[in-house]
Amino acid sequence: MKKTQRNQVVDNARYLREVRPIDPEEIHEYIEGQPHPAAVRQVLREQAADLGLIEREDGRFEPANDDPVSVAFDGVERLPEPIAHALEAQLVDRLGPGWPDGTSGDRLRAKIRDFKRRYLRGETVTYDEVTALGYAIYHLPSYFAATQYVLAELIEDELLGGHLRVLDVGAGVGGPALAVDDLLGAETLVDYHAVEPSAAADILSGMLDETGRNFHPTVHREPIEAVDFDGQFDLIVCANVFSELDDPTSVLTSLLDTLADDGTVCALAPADRNTAIGLRQIERAVEREAGANVYSPTVRLWPNAQPESTSWSFDRKPDLEVPAFQRRLDEGERSGDSYRATEDEDRAPGDDEFVNVDVQYAYSLLRTDGKRAIEFQPDRGRVAKMAETEKHVTDRIDYVAIKLSNDLSEDGNPLFLVGDGSELVDHFAVLTKESTLNRDLTDAAYGDLLQFENVLVLWNDDEGAYNLVVDGETIVDRFAL
Questions:
Q1: CATH topology of domain 386-478
Q2: pLDDT at site 336
Q3: Phi, psi of 208 (to 5 degrees)
Q4: Burial class (CB in 10 A: 0-12, 13-18, 19+), 429
């Protein structure tokens, strides 16, 4: 279609969007040369994000609803079949129908072992095509699930609207993008911008073909520092990328300039100690240097306070069903003696070395408008401040704190990280005797606000932390906010 015709389609759409649903079958008659309605529909699809239009099932277009979205979310049991099939199709296209077996399977398994080792050592991972495919096999399901769990919190709090502009920094092979599309559904207009300079962008582009009719993706293949964005974003996602940046604090600080006044930054990191603690350090640096505020989960309950504790805090959700592509690679035929699991040990096919269905992640939701998930300020006359716990050792006192872990104990008494945003060292609630009066400690979800009454404060010299001993004399209540 000629430029003048395209401009006429856009002009008609701008007028009609305020009057009635836009029907390509109707407005093609008003366009010079009367192009086919299918050509008009294609122009409307290409311009839908700029025009703020969603495409209905009947092929007509109407303005997107700016009201907060509302979706049913009951957790993630599995990677959706269309996404799993799309990934398998890419594996077949690039490596052939026998991709899990022989040389191709060996290459994938070797790449997965290599990036796992490099990651644990804190080394840089270089993404060629096979590495990106291995990354998709091993990480896509869990990253997809983690993103949905965190975004569901924003949806529940009515912080995502029906017309959403999203920036995904370090988009990888598409876990966050696919999670957004699947969670929000076809009635939400998503103008999605991915930044991915590595070879993973090729896999990402293919996976984005599976998104819905109102998900409009743009892939930027330059480093984030080289991309110049026009306008503001309602949601900025930085998923599992900070550990790969030389100066993540500076990058995140610059991203705040592209965040809408009522927008949210969603930062995700793996649950391992180094990256999870690193996320908290970045969170605190951006809070100090750029004026961002923590929306969730490590809310600062006390005014002008900031924690200095280690804060290895992460959430854990139920395991996913094992995707067929992970099982196929795990059980694939090895090519002779070339298969080595580690430098000094052989592993048998089918031992789950290439199965990754754990959903464990650290996250930080940041804003610039001062809004917090928990709008609560403790009363200094009624509860102690964790920054001052040192003077309460061996005393029984009252606290309010946020639950910042699942049960961390392997054997013995249940153990939970808690914090009020002022703690100088870590505080752990230790349940030594459960009762109906303190059961909320175990029943509360990650991120819930708890009140502790008559809790015994002890110093744990081995861990360099405070233990809040919850026994039969302690009351723990979950706040209903």
A1: OB fold (Dihydrolipoamide Acetyltransferase, E2P) (2.40.50)
A2: 62
A3: -70, -15
A4: buried
